[in-house]
Amino acid sequence: MTTLNFTYLPGDGIGPEVGDAAIAVLRAISDKFGHTLLPEFHLIGGAAIDAVGQPLPAETFESCERTGAILLGAVGGPKWDHLKGADRPELGSLLPLRKELNLYANIRPCAPFPALIDNAPLKRERLEGVDFVVMRELTGGIYFGQKGRDVNGAYDECRYSEAEIRRIAIKAFDLAATRKKKVTSVDKSNVLETSRLWRETVIDVATNYPDVELEHLLVDAMTMHMLTHAQDYDVILTENMFGDILTDEASVLCGSMGVIPSASLSDGKTGMYEPIHGSAPDIAGEGKANPIAMILSAAWMLRLSFGLDKEAALIEAAVEAALEQGQTTGDLGGTLTTAQVGDWIASHVSQ
Ligand code: NAD
Ligand code: IPM
Ligand code: MN
């Protein structure tokens, strides 16, 4: 029996909708295995701005730091788009949380569910057998450099230290060593100095992994290769902004933005788990959001933060069953609401 004490940050837009569905599934799994579910609900993002005037209240951060396991929906939306800099939900809550907790390794999988292959706009033969993971650097690069305005316009500085590149490269090689033994490092080394250091450092790290193949691709070419021969990839290692963009593209291979979870990890025990999608203001409040990315993120939290492999695998099997039986939301051609998908998966894990 485990006490599942984690920080639950539903956030904005569809965040609370997909969050409720994930909590229903976590409740079902806790009941089944005799665990105690102890989520600590806290405000973040626009919801926190509205309630207490700041995007990352001190008690929210304190809970995240103390529990070390965070399940987050999404932050941001049109209501807060007029805000600038750290007053914004994105720059004032999500980014500092990632930075302060040193969650530098963001893992985003792309392995299309067999039941969803025909939902993707690509031909079946381009999708069968696709199974890669993007290892996205999450606490450096252009997101965290000096930004501002001056008489000439605006600027966003992009910096990477060798140590920052080395530690994420090690994560990528360690992961590849347990998988198909290939790392594809994506950069823009024909133009950017940070990318030149990136490439040199990755080549150096690779010398410690003689069994893992290393290839380099430029990011513009990668956007094309991902659509034409995604089967070639195992672990795609890339910097912060390229990883953000490439993983939204990867979601197209998987049939929907609503099915890709993520884990953001540090060297210690702290982990944050969140879908790769955002707050989806275009469908928020309508019960249309697909909760599967959030439910899979919760499963990853069980596996990686609480060591509960069996429980995580049961949730993943229930998700697969839901997809095979068409128990899905509209983005996948189904007719169920967010809550109905959550309840279906919850009752499936209870069986
Ligand atoms: P988005 O990911 O919210 O939505 C992109 C498209 O995908 C929309 O058409 C949306 O309806 C659809 N979509 C997303 N999630 C879905 C789901 N679960 N089920 C079905 N369809 C889904 O990206 P956006 O519209 O560019 O951004 C909206 C807001 O979200 C912005 O304020 C942005 O900053 C924020 N955002 C937050 C996070 C985060 O908190 N981690 C991530 C991305 C974007
Ligand atoms: C994501 C989001 C965030 C990012 C935004 C909201 C800051 O797009 O998690 O993918 O760019 O990292
Ligand atoms: Mn993104």
TrEMBL record:
Every Isopropylmalate dehydrogenase-like domain range: 5-345
Site annotation Important for catalysis: residues: 143, 188
Record GO biological process: L-leucine biosynthetic process
HAMAP family (UniProt xref): LeuB_type1
Alphabetic keyword roster: Amino-acid biosynthesis, Branched-chain amino acid biosynthesis, Cytoplasm, Leucine biosynthesis, Magnesium, Manganese, Metal-binding, NAD, Oxidoreductase
Quaternary assembly: Homodimer.
Entry-linked PANTHER family: 3-ISOPROPYLMALATE DEHYDROGENASE
Protein name per its UniProtKB record: 3-isopropylmalate dehydrogenase
Gene3D superfamilies for this protein: Isopropylmalate Dehydrogenase (3.40.718.10)
Family of the protein in this entry: Belongs to the isocitrate and isopropylmalate dehydrogenases family. LeuB type 1 subfamily.
Pathway participation: Amino-acid biosynthesis; L-leucine biosynthesis; L-leucine from 3-methyl-2-oxobutanoate: step 3/4
Top-level taxonomic group: Bacteria
InterPro entries associated with the record: IsoCit/isopropylmalate_DH_CS, IsoPropMal-DH-like_dom, Isopropylmalate_DH
Organism: Litorimonas taeanensis
Catalytic activity field: (2R,3S)-3-isopropylmalate + NAD(+) = 4-methyl-2-oxopentanoate + CO2 + NADH
Record-level GO cellular component terms: cytosol
Cofactor entry: Mn(2+); Mg(2+)
Main location: cytoplasm
The encoding gene: leuB
Coiled coil: none
